[in-house]
Amino acid sequence: MRGICLVALIGLPGAGKSSLCTWLLGQQAALRVRHIVHLCYDDFLDAGPSAELAYKEQRRRIFGTIEQLITAIQEDIDWPAQTRRRTASNSDPSSSGHLILCDDNFYYRSMRHKLHQLCRTSGCVFGQIHIARSLDLCLRDNSKRSGANCVPVDIVRQMSDRLEPPGSEAWERNSLTLHILDMDERERLLLGFISSLLEMPAVPPATESQQAQDQSLTHRLDLLLRARIGALLQEIAQEVDRRLAGQALNNKRKQILTRFRTEGGGEEAKGDAEDEALNYYVHLLN
Known about the structure:
Blueprint: E1 4-10, H1 17-25, H2 28-31, E2 33-40, H3 55-75, H4 81-84, E3 87-89, E4 97-103, H5 109-122, E5 125-131, H6 135-143, H7 153-162, E6 175-178, H8 183-198, H9 208-234, H10 239-263, H11 271-282
Parallel strand pairs: 1-4, 1-5, 2-4, 5-6
Antiparallel strand pairs: 2-3
Helix pairs in contact: 6-7, 9-10, 9-11
């Protein structure tokens, strides 16, 4: 299987993500990769009022393009037409790896987790680079963009308030956060980080049994949450209060299940550790 590393770029508009990708496209010799693909979401998205497709549907289509690209690389078939012009080629026959740079804001952790899941099921290495630039500097550089490339100030501020940086969950362990640094130091960190990702052994695609285990863990957690809700409701005497509490607790149950799927809470846990992970999420009801 051809080695593929997919890296998600995290940061506000104006943080410098696209500039970083442009620089990386010129580092093939240093990274010793066969292809580097810069997949910029802005090239695919149309957020204007006349857009034919809803924003979420457009993102689903981009995700489908990434799936097709990974399959094309692994099976050595024609790449999706949308990615061909964003590819830099290296004629060095000793270079075999492939680096895919997903250039988007990715301010919600769930946006990145979907890419991690794709990497897990297709046998790719997943990594993240968070460009932690200040809001003021991002707003300044975003304002210099022309036309539709300039994101409205209120949207940038909203993204800043909602941005979820890489956390401590197992699936986010391959992460690099870049602050304002000396350029030479910044480049050294970048090359070292990406080289370490490219040197990681190819990950076997998740089997059907592994995927079924993930679903089974979610089902187990749902049953535990329902049982806990039942116990909590028995402590409430008034029927009206019990009904209102039941609605609130069930809404919270759904939020906890979504968080569990997003964070991959039981992804690497076994035995007692698995039970401990599930209990952690059950206690979020309290």
